[in-house]
Design goal:
The protein contains three helices and eight strands; from the N terminus they run E-E-H-H-E-E-E-E-E-E-H. It has 174 residues and is α+β, with helices and mostly antiparallel strands.
Length: 174
């Protein structure tokens, strides 16, 4: 994939799809950025408090169509998790850093042991259009030999999750 930044222009009703940077076959962090017509504080609140509404659980969860919802408890030590209709909780990660309106960092290990956790860092910055949201997913070495395989999957998944589901949610709330 080519490096770069997707931009939302006023003439476009939806933000342009993001572009993922980094080599597809390595273990470098994945970086996905989008620009939104929402100030950073609102973009942060939509990402955290609105996760249950915008996360595409039917396609990007352990339970798939059976997932009832996902949740992010935006406080240090808070859980990132998925709930199945039968009440089963799938722990995806733990919130490590919260700087409201600016930054969120959490561990990431859906369906795997916490010892194989990677990290996700999401930054919210002011931009001409409102805000630039940059998600960086790193720590692939914790996965050992399967790291390049999973990284390739996430390199195609994050642009959908961030650039389509999340961006569409923020745009609707604008």
């Amino acid at each position: 994939m080519r490096g770069g930044l997707a931009r939302h222009t006023p003439a476009s009703p939806q933000p342009a799809p993001p572009v993922c940077s980094g080599r597809m076959d390595g273990t470098d962090p994945i970086v996905v950025s989008i620009e939104l017509a929402a100030e950073p504080g609102r973009a942060f609140a939509a990402f955290t408090a609105g996760l249950a509404e915008w996360w595409p659980a039917a396609t990007h969860s352990l339970s798939r169509q059976d997932a009832s919802r996902c949740r992010l408890d935006a406080k240090p030590g808070g859980a990132v998790e998925e709930f199945a209709p039968d009440g089963t909780r799938h722990h995806w990660g733990t919130v490590e850093v919260v700087e409201p309106g600016r930054r969120l960092r959490f561990s990431w290990h859906p369906g795997r042991d916490a010892g194989s956790a990677q990290w996700i860092d999401v930054r919210f910055e002011a931009a001409a259009t409102g805000s630039r949201v940059t998600l960086t997913h790193g720590g692939w070495e914790a996965l050992g030999e399967i790291a390049p395989i999973l990284r390739r999957e996430y390199a195609t998944g994050w642009p959908v999750v961030l650039g389509e589901s999340y961006a569409r949610f923020v745009t609707r709330k604008a």
